[in-house]
Every structure is written in C-alpha cells, then in structure tokens.
C-alpha cells in the first residue's frame, strides 16, 4: 500500500432480493466504468414498500478505487 | 408525487432468522394499522446474544406513509 | 436486570458469505474469551472488492457482556 | 411553561413552490388531527428533480405539541 | 424476547425539580395511553432559565413499547 | 423502480438571491452534463457576508441520477 | 487570505417572514457590534407554531469574522 | 417571541455534588455578566475520577440569551 | 501531564436509584481491575420501564485511565 | 480542579506552513485578550488550494479557559 | 464569488511521511485531471501499522473546484 | 484478508512535539501488549495550553489488530 491515491464515488443500488444483492448490483454497475475498485462502505439502507411489503431494498454505498499512477 | 404529506413512525422488529426478516416483521406489523406505507429507513441494527450465539436480530426502522387528503 | 455493570468491546468480523456471517464470526471469536455476552450493536458495514465483486464483508460491532459480581 | 409533557411527530411536507410552503403544508396537515402544536424542527431538506429542474421540495420536520393534562 | 415488534414515541418532559423528574413525568404521561412500555432513551437535555436560575428542566426521550400480537 | 443503480454527486450552488435559487443554480449546472437527475439532498447551507449583509447564499447538495442500463 | 484568525459566534435570528429574513436579522444584529463579518453557517432551523400556523421562523447560525491584527 | 435575536455561549460547569449542580454553577457564573438568559442545552457530560470515585462532575452547556434591541 | 498514554473502556452501569448512581456503579466496578482511572465521558442514557415507571437507569460511559510506563 | 467554570470560544486559524502552525496562530491570537486558556479541541480541518497546491491550512478549534472567580 | 457552482470529489491520499504529505499527494493527483481546485476539507484520518509502527498515513479529503461557465 | 476477526482499542496519546508524535506514542505503547496491530483511526484531536501556548498535543485513536486463530 505505497503512496496511492484513492477516489470514492457514492452509489445507490436497488434490488427486490435483499440488502446484499442491492450492494452487489451497485458494485457491478460501477465496475462497468471504474477499474481497480478496492472497497465499499455502507452509508444508508432504505427500501420501498408496496402493498404492505418490502418491494425493493435500496442501499447507498461509497466505492473506493485506486487512481492510476 | 404532488402536494402530499407523509408521516414517519419508528419501529423495532426482531427475528431469529436475520436482519431482513426483522425489517419485514416490523413492516408487516405496521401494516395492520397503517395504510399507504411508502418507504422505510434503517436507523439501527442490534441483536440479542444467548449462549455465545446471535439469538435475535433487532432492527429499528422508520416507516413513511402518505397521510390521506 | 438488577444493578449489573456491562462492558463493551469493539470487533470487526469478516466473511466471504455475507453480513450476518461476518457478525456471527465476530461473536463466535469473542465468545472464546468473554463470558456472558448479552447483545451487539452494528457500528459500520464495509467490504473488500476483488475483480469487480464483493470478496469479503466486514462488519464492525460492539459486543456487550455482563461483568461478574 | 409548567410541568407540561410534549410529544413530537415526524412529517414530510412537499410543495412545488418551495421550502417554506412544504413546511407549512406539513404543519397544516398535522393540525387537522393534533391540537396545541407548539414548534417544529427541520430534520432534512430534499427535493424531486424532473426534466432537469426542481419539481417538488420535500422537507422533513418534527412537530412538537402539548399533551392534555 | 421472541418475534416482538416495538414502537417508539418521542416525548419531552419538563419539571422544576430536575432531570430525572422530567423523565419520569414524560414516562407517566405516556403511560396514560400506552400499554407495555419497555425502555426509554434520552435524546436531549435542555432547560428554561428565569431570573438567572434554572426554572424548568426539559428532557426529550424516546419511549419504546411492545405492540400487541 | 426496478433494479436501477443511482450515482450521487456533491455540488455547491451560490446565488445572491437566496437559498432556493442557489439550489436551482446547482441543479441547472449539473444538468448540462448529467442525464436523468432524480433527486437532491441538502447537505449544508452557508453564505458570504459583505458590508454587514448576506451577499451570497451557498448551498451544498447531493444530486442523485439514474445510471444507464 | 493570509495568516488571519477568525472567530465564530452562534446566534439565533427569528422572523415572521421566513428563513432568510431570520438569518438576515441575526446578521444585522451581529453587525452592530462585530466588524469584518465574513461568512455564516446554518446550524439549525426551527419555528414557533401558533393557532396551527408557523408564527415565527427561528434559524441558528454561526457567524465568522476576522480578528484584527 | 417577536423579531428577537439570541446569542449562545458555551460553558463548562463543574461540581463535586452532581450533574445538576454543575449546570447551575455554569448558569450562575454566566449570569454575572449576561442579562436576559433564556435557556440552556446540554452538550456533553464528563467527570474527573480520583481514587476510584467520581470527584467532579463536568457538564458543558450552551446558554442562550436575548440580545438587547 | 507529560507524555502519558491513556486507554478508554466503555461500560454501562445500571441503578434503580438514578443516573449518577448508575455512573458511580460503573466506575466502582471498573476500579476493581483498573488502576489510575482519570476521567469518564457519558455516551448514552437509557432506562428500563416496568409497570409504567422507570425501574432501572442505564448509563453508558467511557472511562479513561493512564497506562503504566 | 475545584468548582471552576470554563468558557469556550470557537476560532479558525490559518497558516501557509501547516496544521499545527494554524492551531498555534489561533491560540496566540486568542491569548491577546483571554487569560487562563486551558485546552483546545479541533473541530474541523480545511485548506485553500491555489495553482493546484495547498496554499493555506485552516483549522477550526474551540479554546476553553477558566472564568475568574 | 459570483454565481459559481462548485463540485466536490472525495479522495484518500496516503504517505509514509505524514498527514500533510498525504493530503498534498491527494491534491496533486486530483490536479492532474481537475482544473480550478479551490479548497479541501478533511473527512477522516487513518493509518496503516506495520511491525508496531505507523507505516502509512491515510487522509480522506473532499476537494472543491469551480465548474466552468 | 480471509475470515479474520479484528478487535479495536481506544487510546489517547500525548506529546509536546505534535499531532503525529502523539499518535506514534499511543501506537508504541499499545504495541507493548498487543500483537498484530493493523491500522488506526483518529477519533479526536485536542491539546493542553499553558502560558498561552500549546504545551501538549493529545490525540485519541482507535487501534485495530488481528485476533489470533
């Protein structure tokens, strides 16, 4: 872990399946344009309710990635 | 999403199964008396430990619902 | 719940399986040296990303336990 | 201000006009069922964007009111 | 502590006697309409000053209670 | 609201006219390069004082927008 | 912006007209005794309710000013 | 409560007797130089331990007072 | 106060008598195993309600103590 | 540490040299008018960037001092 | 400071030399792609420990820059 | 980074030399009894003032270390 610089982006993933799938959806989408993703941090967990049930889980994360030298 | 007013209530659901089930238990119980629930926000995640293992997951959420016109 | 005194320790569990397993790993490890664990509180949820996917879930918790009389 | 007890409820008002109107909408709606409202505190200010413009202002407040003796 | 659901309400008690009496006033008032109160959490401690002295202690708490099955 | 992923950017708008205009300036500027903006959240409200009067209102917001499939 | 030192004071302005007027009232009052005010930061927005309507807007700000060399 | 402006100062009172006496000491000291004190808010409660016992209670408060017209 | 290093532990004391007694119970219990305790900081104040009354006060504190040279 | 009362003021020091010099500048300036300063607490660390480099370090601190008996 | 709009990015710089160098590394790296950087705010200071010593200082900052007209 | 569990301890280091030396003092002292320290996080930065100058820098950190398998 030498003199690297990392950048963080904030994303909200959603999924009808659950909290972890919402996070993995956000990470997968970020990976389409970002190289060298290293970690994520959960910022907030929410969800959408329809007909009295949880319809979508929505998790906001920050994703950190290494900037190229 | 016109000039609606929403109210939030704070609930703690518990479950021996896990975090999501604790949330769904709280939403289901709230739905017995509240119409038009729209979203929830996780406030805190805790749990009860018995005999060195997680016995109950306890998740505090806020549930937002539309007030009738 | 009479005049007990509780102590809290802060732990980070990790797991490739998910959030709940990371918490249970931390509780199990703590139970090797701590008697009378009573509850936990989630402080932070993070994770390690490798090859564009979540490789490890890392959950920091506080574990509260009863101090002996 | 003698030995009163106050209760707080959390509401989100929305308005296409602006922040203050969103608050006033929430207070007016709360006043339909709550007597003796005394103060509010702003918790969060958000808004909905449509076609690149702010379409609705959404302000979450807590409203405090005196409980009857 | 099986699969219960708890609700929380936010109250401000006041008392000329002190912090604990303000909390107990709020709990007693809540008990007039709420069954099965289980715990409280202090949110904020304030007070009113008159003639250079503390005239009323005002403590805001959240009270948690079990929802009926 | 199916399996979307949203990104958030943090912006500070300024205006000599007021709080709402500062927000709208930030949203308008963001809209020059961002498609599909959906919501904003106010993070901080500040201002610049000149000659004893508020000269500019400065509002920091986060803007959330849908990432393309 | 050389080696200046700034001091901050915390003020609450009130106004029946609105949020911005409450801030401007606080800044104007501070300017009666403070030279070289440079910026303000909003700390909290509250209000007083009378007869079911917002009667006064109350905004707490911090005002920063340059200390003389 | 017309168009008043209030200022807040931050004080730490200490007392060997307890939390409330520490607050009252701070309010009494502030009253030697400040007119028209109106309210206080507790910011932090700490204490000094000597020989395994609480020797002094230290409570940091903000005191709000009306600025003269 | 030369080049000392201090450690903090987090404890929750409980008491049926009140807030200060709960803190003193926690400090007394910590003193059974910790030398050179220097200060405490209140982290959270809660309580247990039975039969509509406060049955136990529960105060979480951090206790700081000097590590031996 | 008998029954003293302490006051805190909030200051921002700046320096082109670094974080500690910015703090020391603020303390030195405060010492021109305040007797008996006892401690400081860092509130925020920021800086000004010019031509792609840090030009000034700006550190906001609270300074606590003993009020005279 | 006319009607500008600023954007903020969140970066983590690391350095074996110290806190300031970690910040300057992050600012320098950001300057490779961002024009018109104006200020930074420290979000978090951490570090990596190897063989019982601080091996790398890691400072997370937000960098604000002017968006072009 | 397989299925490790980490523990955190909270320490305050002090130094007359500066912020970094205070952190390094705390890490060095912790290393006398803790194996496998991995990282630290700064929690709070304070200092002691004597004769109008900073006499000691005091930095509170959390140190994370790997628990043995």
From TrEMBL, chains A, B, C, D, E, F, G, H, I, J, K, L:
PANTHER family (alphabetical): CALCIUM DODECIN
InterPro entries registered for this protein in UniProt: Dodecin, Dodecin-like, Dodecin-like_sf, Dodecin_bact
One Pfam family named in its UniProt record: Dodecin
Signal peptide: none
Source organism of the structure: Methylomonas fluvii
Protein name in UniProt: Dodecin domain-containing protein
